[in-house]
Write the structure tokens for this entry.
Amino acid sequence: MIKELIKMVKSKKFSGVILLFIAVSLIIFSQTLFSSPSKETTQNNNENRVKTVPDTREQVYYSFSSVAKEALPIVVQINTVVEQIIPAFRSPFDFFFGNEAPKQGGQKREQPGLGSGVIVKQDGNKVYVLTNNHVAEKAKEIKVKLNDGREFDAKIIGNDSRTDLALIMFETKEKVPVAVLGDSDELEVGDIVLAVGSPYGFESTVTMGIISALGRHALKGIAGFTDYIQTDASINPGNSGGALINMKGEVVGINTWIRTASGGSDGVGFAIPVNNSKKAINEFITTGKITYGWLGVRIEDLSGSSSEDLRKSLGLENKKGAIVFNLFKNSPASKSGLLPGDYIIQIDNENIENAEQLTKIVGRLSPGSNPLFKIIRDKKEITLNVKIEKRADENEIQKNKDLWPGIIVTNLTDEIRKELKTADSVKGVVIASVIPESPAAVAGLKAGDIIQEINDAPTTDIGMFYSSLNKSGSNKKIFQIDRQGSSIMIGLVK
């Protein structure tokens, strides 16, 4: 088209005005073709485009400030004074070289302690704070500092070392915020939680993380009558007794301990599920302690490849549960008909996974209750009711002298036979351990003894051993023993 216009101009068929009109038209056309879109067009296009940059601060991040505002007032700082006794040595050198034992007594020294707590109840002027037993147990003095700066003297109302829980109380005429206790059974791995407490004395500290795992078991030396919530929310010294908070602002756990190589938070913290403490709060207020059910048995797991032979001998196949190796005389278990060798697989329709779970289930049972036990005995399932009794304090529980029979036995495998240098002709079960001060220990049974017969009945495997041991009749049991090639007889009286 442009070439045609040029020819026409050269032929002088158009006047100057017409040429001017054509030039302007071409300029407008080119601008329309190559110019940016209009403001209206841009706006329409932007509305259809996915936004990649947030327009407000709220879109940049999620804030937990509303949850923190709910949680901070119900968590307190606990400062304690613990009295320690420093042993007195006869000279400064004795401490370093240990030449002599320390003198009786010693110097008393007061040691400050730090922890956190959760306000769980106000009854008139009395305010109750839940914390860890290891925070308050040995305290000579306890002071509670609230989030708003108020301070109060407090005292222990009740405590329990088995769950590491304690309840302290202070008095005030003023109203104080009280925690809402959530349902820890509703927690799921991945849920967001806040840990609130006073790490290293920095009061009203909030950290955030997730639920890393549920149903964790305690390490040795840590309270084992509860399971634990694992979280990566930062927990440090001073956080003990503080709150683990869900996104509703409810307390779902009591922060208790950490697994650390550095002494501080390594992202592996543990909290007692709040559902495990609800009953304890009321018991602390009414009696000052937690009441546990007691069965009166020594139980173990039969797990791993090394126990496959034992499971086969007892007819357990793939059954989960816990085996009764020993029981206390005149205990609920003994009175109700439980016997050594019984394998407990269920209590009141609740399946038993392992020995630790069984201990916790029995502990939760009310004294006087009569739950139904399902067990495997002589390769058959049977049921019996056991009347649960109140568990005494640890130092009052029956001694080993009342433990029957006082031994743990296992099958005589080829590996054990080789280790004991026992002839192939010797058949029986081998004593793996003897419980000190038990009837078996007093009678002279020893680890490594091979029990061949009980009252003339052969005991070629662990199943036959318990059948012979539990056989009704005389309470006197005569054990035929092979001890390093020598044949001896030892009697036990039940």
Notes: Residues 16-34 form the longest helix (19 residues). The chain has 14 helices and 27 strands.
